Amino acid sequence: NYGLTVSIGVEGVGHGEDLYFFWNSTFTQTAKLLFPNFKLILRRMVRLLSNFVKYKKPIIKPDALFQNLEWPKFDSKDLLYLKIDSNLEVLSDMRDYSAKRTVYNKHIQKPISVY
């Protein structure tokens, strides 16, 4: 978390802070000097986005830049995601979402209206 965003129970970059990886700014130039892993994460983020734009898939083939990992296919039961840091990790169920979904499903009244 390089900015002032505070998310209890969530480590890393806050909402919108990933934009620093895509736009050249004073912060980006300073971060390259201060954080040893910034350049690696920058390369990963730019490649993930450009692959997604070109191929509709963030990681198109095994690549040393991505530690030969595959981008996890979304499954609403497993809730797999890729934690992007110096070391990439495929993790599941961020912030115990499945427990919250169980409570929601138990107490929701149908029909559901969204305004």
TrEMBL record:
Start and end residues of each Carboxylesterase type B domain: 11-89
Q: Which residues form the signal peptide?
A: none
Which UniProt keywords are listed? Glycoprotein
Q: Which SUPFAM superfamilies would you find in this protein's record?
A: alpha/beta-Hydrolases
Pfam families from the UniProt entry: COesterase
Q: Which domain of life is it from?
A: Eukaryota
**What name does this protein carry?**
Carboxylesterase type B domain-containing protein
Q: Which organism is it from?
A: Callosobruchus maculatus (Southern cowpea weevil)
